[in-house]
Design brief:
Helices cover 68% and strands 0% of the residues. By secondary structure, the chain is an all-alpha fold. Among the domains are: 35 residues; 72 residues, Serine Threonine Protein Phosphatase 5, Tetratricopeptide repeat (Alpha Horseshoe); 222 residues, Alpha Horseshoe (Serine Threonine Protein Phosphatase 5, Tetratricopeptide repeat). Pfam families: TPR_1, TPR_16.
């Protein structure tokens, strides 16, 4: 091959020489050949190759101008000519049904095109009394033209549009909206008055007004000559339910008997009816503002109903009455929150502590009892327990103090101690509905739901008045849901307020 390659290549090629040497057995390479020598030969060959490539001219790039000579000189005219040529060819071709339909649509569009243009121009023009007067159009009037003609000429101002809308609504419905408006106005006015009343009650402006008391429909003691004496005897027999009816008969005979109202309120409180107790006790205080027993009992019932600030106000009046002062001089500051007024609480607490310090080493059971109620309001149950225990040490046979101690211990998460306190109250007053109910709640907290149901059932059987609306039912229903393996007919019986049915179910469940 050398004879053929030599004339073309001229001088000897180093790459060819290298290939010839490499083609021989590499075993013949001297062992003393070092890497730098090989590297130097490779670098010289690479540099020679790069110089040869650099000496060659670069290839020419693609020239776009060479194509422009093949394009038409007038692109617009050429494209128009091409389009016309295509259209003529299409027109000469046989026309299908779809093509015929397209042609008809095109002709129709061309005929109505001026109407479209006019409508669009009018829609873009500024609104004025002249531009909104649309003339008679063809059957192909643009939708915006009709819109401007029927609607936009009425949108002169928001006030006029509102009047127009009102007139249209009244005419379409023959004036019925006027009645609706008046009815809504009356409803809004009634709602506003209700809001004002609630705000006034929250501020204490009308809370001192006694609530309306509702009497029992059937009272067997209305014919008694002295029902209040009968009520006292029934209370002595631990029968608060019938005593309540006797006191009701007493106030119906004489609605200005403050003492009868007070005893009626106490009977309702022991019967687990705080709302009725509040109404009766307010009647008593309205007649006899300095009645200490009524003031303290009213404070307790209000606290049970979540009326902390009102309860605090009654406790403040109680302390004044307890010292022989005039409670009419005490005014309640406005309060706009349902949360306890801490500033007012600190003031009343200091007043109580000052009176307690003045007593020296002699403890006052009534004052310690009121202090226990006071500390229950701000959830300071430790101090409340200490105060009530001092009162119990002075009057250990008072079941109300034992029940109050149990409730305070339960609020302070001392449920086992609370159960013991409730049992002490029931030992002294077996028909004490409130203590029986509280004991059931403590049993629920200890997960003794079966025993809790028994206590709730006993409380309902002892409770007098409207048992169907008693709040004990809802608590009993909650206990029934938590009872393991409860009979399926237990909750329906509770929903139906069936005392005897619940009793039979629980008896069969126990056996």
């Amino acid at each position: 091959m050398k004879s053929f390659a030599a004339p073309e290549c001229g001088q000897s090629n180093a790459v060819v020489s290298l290939a010839r040497n490499f083609g021989q057995s590499n075993q013949r390479l001297p062992a003393t050949v070092s890497a730098p020598a090989l590297s130097s030969t490779a670098d010289s060959l690479a540099n020679e190759y790069l110089r040869a490539k650099a000496a060659q001219p670069a290839p020419a790039s693609f020239n776009m101008q060479s194509l422009t000579t093949n394009l038409p000189q007038n692109m617009s005219a050429a494209s128009t000519s091409l389009a016309n040529k295509w259209a003529s060819e299409f027109a000469q071709a046989p026309m299908s049904s779809s093509a015929q339909l397209a042609t008809n649509w095109t002709k129709q569009y061309n005929l109505s095109r001026p109407v479209y243009s006019q409508a669009w121009t009018t829609a873009q023009a500024p609104m004025s009394s002249t531009s909104m007067q649309m003339g008679q159009g063809t059957s192909h009037d643009f939708w915006s033209a009709e819109y401007l003609k029927t609607v936009d000429d009425k949108l002169k101002s928001p006030e006029e549009m509102g009047d127009l809308w009102a007139r249209e609504m009244l005419s379409n419905h023959e004036g019925r909206e006027q009645d609706v408006w008046h009815n809504n106005s009356d409803a809004m006015e009634a709602m506003w008055k209700d809001i004002q009343r609630r705000c006034e009650e929250a501020q204490g402006e009308t809370f001192e007004t006694p609530a309306q008391y509702t009497y029992q429909e059937q009272n067997p003691y209305l014919s008694e000559l002295d029902p209040k004496v009968l009520g006292d005897r029934l209370m002595g027999e631990n029968d608060a339910g019938n005593a309540m009816l006797a006191y009701e008969a007493a106030v119906q005979k004489n609605d200005q008997d403050a003492d009868a109202w007070c005893r009626l309120g106490l009977a309702h409180a022991e019967n687990e009816e705080d709302k009725k107790a509040i109404a009766a006790l307010q009647k008593c205080i309205a007649i006899q503002p300095n009645n200490e027993e009524a003031l303290l009992a009213l404070s307790v019932s209000m606290a049970n109903e979540g009326m902390d600030n009102e309860s605090l106000f009654e406790l403040q009046k109680w302390l004044v009455a307890h010292q022989g002062g005039d409670v009419s001089s005490i005014t309640k500051s406005p309060n706009y929150s349902s949360f306890l007024n801490e500033t007012m609480f600190a003031k009343v607490e200091q007043e109580y502590l000052n009176v307690a310090r003045q007593q020296g080493g002699t403890a006052d059971a009534a004052l310690q009892n009121a202090l226990g109620v006071l500390y229950n309001l701000n959830r300071n149950y430790e101090r409340a327990v200490d105060c009530i225990k001092i009162a119990i040490a002075i009057k250990p046979e008072d079941p109300r103090l034992w029940n109050r101690l149990g409730a305070t211990l339960a609020n302070g998460d001392r449920t086992p101690e609370a159960v013991a306190a409730y049992r002490e109250a029931l030992q002294r007053y077996p028909t004490y509905v409130r203590a029986r109910y509280n004991l059931g709640i403590s049993c629920m907290q200890l997960a003794s739901h079966r025993e809790a149901l028994d206590h709730f059932l006993s409380a309902l059987e002892l409770q007098k008045g409207d048992k169907m609306s008693s709040t004990i039912w809802s608590t009993m229903w909650s206990a029934a849901l938590r009872l393991r393996d409860a009979p399926p007919n237990l909750t329906p019986a509770i929903d139906n307020r069936d005392i005897q049915g619940v009793k039979q179910i629980l008896q069969s469940f126990a056996s």
